[in-house]
Amino acid sequence: MLPETVKSKYHDLLSVQHPRVKPLEYRHEQQNTFKPEEILYKTLGFSVAQATSSLISAGKGVFVTRGLVPKGAVVSMYPGTVYQKYEPIFFQSVGNPFIFRCLDGVLIDGNDKGISKVVYRSCNGRDRLGPFKMSDSTWLTSEICNPLAVGQYVNNCSNDRAANVCYQEFDVPAVFPIELKQYLPNIAYSCDKQSPLRCVILVALRDIKQGEELFSNYYTIVS
Ligand SMILES: C[S@@+](CC[C@H](N)C(=O)[O-])C[C@H]1O[C@@H](n2cnc3c(N)ncnc32)[C@H](O)[C@@H]1O
């Protein structure tokens, strides 16, 4: 099922039998060695995470937990199932504050609970190609592989909290390596080969220091 170019590149990986469930001790050992937040900090010079918002009664928000985010840096990604505007989303959308609407009407459901979570996992399983997943689903768990995938928890700006990040939409190009798709926190609702996968990232509008909360403007997108 895998394209020959990918198969030959990952020959060793394909021949190894991976146990379905790793022993707990081994998992912990691995976590200590390769904590994703640590890798993010060492690679980009900052890390981000969800925590209780500094806004009263706003629930959770996203904070810069270490380092400094330079102006123009990608500070997080908006995870979720991507719906074309003609695809059914009624039940997933009821009482759901995590639905992001792109300029062309494409919707991204970033809710990590309930039916939204079930749909994302189902699409992820459906699109799997041999050993390669077509998206990262760890943002739905407590063992997150991509700590940038928290953009759906960024709160809206207000009079006293100016936006320090903005949304940027983009379509994943057809040449994007298939083996890297497992790191993207987005999956298409339908396996519609015509439409490229839509992703939304959050970009720093200024330098953002450690301890600051991220605020976006829900009504502004850069296309
Ligand atoms: C996309 S969610 C953001 C994450 C949310 N804070 C949470 O903990 O689930 C959007 C919801 O967050 C809350 N929120 C976002 N910005 C806010 C603000 N400036 N003031 C109060 N509540 C806000 C509202 O309840 C809104 O429906």
From TrEMBL:
SUPFAM superfamilies in UniProt: SET domain
InterPro entries hit by this protein: SET_dom, SET_dom_sf, SETD9
SET domain sequence ranges: 46-219
Alphabetical list of Gene3D superfamilies matching this protein: SET domain
UniProt xrefs under CDD domains: SET_SETD9 (cd10537)
Domain of life: Eukaryota
Name used for this protein in its record: SET domain-containing protein 9 isoform X4
Organism listed in the record: Zalophus californianus (California sealion)
